[in-house]
C-alpha cells in the first residue's frame, strides 16, 4: 500500500489531480427551446458571426410553427431573427432543416425544406433558398421540382463566389418518390443552374449532406441512398465545378450506410465522415460508422458504433484545434435516458480512429443531437439537440474541454 504521508506522494497526487482537472469536460445548457422561440433544431450546425454570436435555425416553432432563424450569444441570450411562413401560404419558406452560412456580403443564407411557390404534389411547396439581411428582411427563391425539391443541406460558397448546394428530391429522375435529387449552383443575384441530376440505380439518390470544396478545387459530398449495385446504401462522390460527377465509393451496409452528414477534409488531405447506419450486422437499430476516404476513393472504417458508445450519427464531423475530429450521435450512450436506445452522445475521434465518448445526453440536458458541432473562437464547442431539455423541444449547449482559443473563420 502506498504511503501518502511524504512530500513526494503529495506532489504525485497534486499532479494527477491537475491532469484530471485539465482534461475534464463540462456541458452547459445555454437555452431550452419553448416553441415560441423555436423548436426542434434538426440537421443543422451553428455558425459563428463576426460579432462572436452564434446563428442557427429551428425546424418548427415560432409564430407560425414553421421554423425560425435565431441568434444566440455564447452566454445563452437568444434572439429570434425571423419566423417562417410569414406570407401565406408560406411563400417565404417552411421548416428549415439546414444550418446557415454567411455570404460574402455578410448576410445570412440558408434553405427551407418546404414552402415557396413551387407546385410539388406531395409537399407544401418545393422549398426555398433565402437571404436574411441584418435588418431582418428576407428574400427567397423557390424550387419548382424539375430544378430540385426538399433542400435539406446548408449552402457552401465556392471559390468562384457562387453558392453551391443539394436537394434531396426533384430533378429529372422520377424513380424516387419525389425525384432523386440534384446538385445546383446559384449566383449571388439568384440565377440557378442545375449541375447534376441524381439517378437512383447509377450514381446515388437523395443527398441530405452539404457539399464541401476540397483543396483541389473539386466538390465532395454524399448521397444517403442508391448507387450502382443492388446492395447500395449511399455513395461518396466528387464533382468538378462544371458539374462532372464521379462516384468514389458505394456503401454496402458492412462498411456503413445512409450517410447524412457532410464530409470534412483533414490536414492530411483525406476526407472524413460518418454513416447513420451499417457497420455492425447484428445492430437492429442505426449504429453507423466513422470513415476516412482518400480523394481517389479508398475508404477505411475508423470506428463502428455499438450503441453504448453512440449510434446513428447524422451531423458532420469537425476538425478541432487539437487535431482531432469531434461529432455527435443521434442515439446511443447512457441507456438510463428515457429512450429505447439512449439519447445520443458527443464524441472525439483521432485521425487514426481512437474514439472517446465525451458526453451522453440524459434527456433533461437534451436528447437526440442530430446536427453537428462548431468550435467557436473561445475554444469551446457549441451545438443543439433535436428534443429534450426543460420543455422537450430541444436545446442549445456548450461543451468546454479547455482547448485553446481559435481564430475566427
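-> sequence recovered:
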Amino acid at each position: 500500500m502506498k504511503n501518502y504521508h511524504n512530500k513526494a506522494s503529495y506532489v504525485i497526487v497534486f499532479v494527477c489531480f491537475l491532469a484530471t482537472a485539465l482534461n475534464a469536460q463540462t456541458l452547459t445548457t445555454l437555452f431550452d427551446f419553448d416553441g415560441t422561440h423555436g423548436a426542434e433544431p434538426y440537421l443543422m450546425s451553428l455558425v459563428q458571426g463576426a460579432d462572436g454570436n452564434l446563428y442557427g435555425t429551428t425546424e418548427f416553432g415560432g409564430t407560425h410553427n414553421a421554423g425560425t432563424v435565431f441568434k444566440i450569444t455564447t452566454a445563452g441570450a437568444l434572439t429570434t431573427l425571423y419566423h417562417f411562413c410569414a406570407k401565406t401560404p408560406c411563400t417565404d419558406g417552411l421548416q428549415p432543416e439546414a444550418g446557415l452560412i454567411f455570404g460574402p456580403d455578410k448576410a445570412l443564407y440558408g434553405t427551407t425544406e418546404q414552402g415557396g411557390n413551387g407546385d410539388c404534389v406531395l409537399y407544401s411547396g418545393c422549398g426555398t433558398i433565402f437571404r436574411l439581411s441584418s435588418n431582418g428582411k428576407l428574400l427567397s427563391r423557390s424550387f419548382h421540382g424539375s430544378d430540385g425539391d426538399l433542400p435539406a443541406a446548408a449552402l457552401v460558397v465556392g471559390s468562384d463566389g457562387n453558392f453551391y448546394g443539394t436537394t434531396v428530391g426533384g430533378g429529372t429522375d422520377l424513380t424516387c418518390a419525389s425525384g432523386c435529387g440534384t446538385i445546383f449552383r446559384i449566383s449571388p443575384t439568384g440565377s440557378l443552374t442545375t449541375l447534376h441530376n441524381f439517378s437512383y440505380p447509377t450514381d446515388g439518390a437523395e443527398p441530405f449532406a452539404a457539399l464541401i470544396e476540397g483543396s483541389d478545387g473539386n466538390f465532395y459530398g454524399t448521397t444517403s441512398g442508391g448507387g450502382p449495385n443492388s446492395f447500395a446504401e449511399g455513395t461518396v462522390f466528387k464533382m468538378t465545378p462544371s458539374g462532372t460527377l464521379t462516384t468514389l465509393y458505394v456503401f454496402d451496409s458492412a462498411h456503413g450506410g445512409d450517410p447524412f452528414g457532410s464530409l470534412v477534409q483533414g490536414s492530411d488531405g483525406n476526407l472524413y465522415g460518418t454513416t447513420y447506419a451499417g457497420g455492425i450486422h447484428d445492430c437492429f437499430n442505426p449504429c453507423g460508422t466513422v470513415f476516412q476516404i482518400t480523394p481517389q476513393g479508398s475508404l477505411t472504417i475508423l470506428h463502428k458504433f455499438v450503441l453504448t458508445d453512440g449510434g446513428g450519427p447524422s451531423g458532420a464531423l469537425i476538425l478541432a484545434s487539437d487535431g482531432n475530429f469531434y461529432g455527435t450521435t443521434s442515439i446511443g450512450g447512457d441507456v438510463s435516458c428515457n429512450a429505447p436506445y439512449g439519447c445520443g452522445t458527443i464524441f472525439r475521434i483521432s485521425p487514426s480512429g481512437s474514439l472517446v465518448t465525451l458526453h451522453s445526453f440524459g434527456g433533461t440536458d437534451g436528447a437526440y443531437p442530430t446536427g453537428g458541432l462548431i468550435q467557436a473562437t473561445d475554444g469551446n464547442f457549441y451545438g443543439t439537440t433535436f428534443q429534450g431539455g426543460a420543455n422537450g423541444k430541444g436545446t442549445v449547449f456548450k461543451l468546454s474541454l479547455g482547448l485553446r482559443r481559435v481564430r475566427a473563420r
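Residues 331 and 344 are 4 Å apart (CA to CA).
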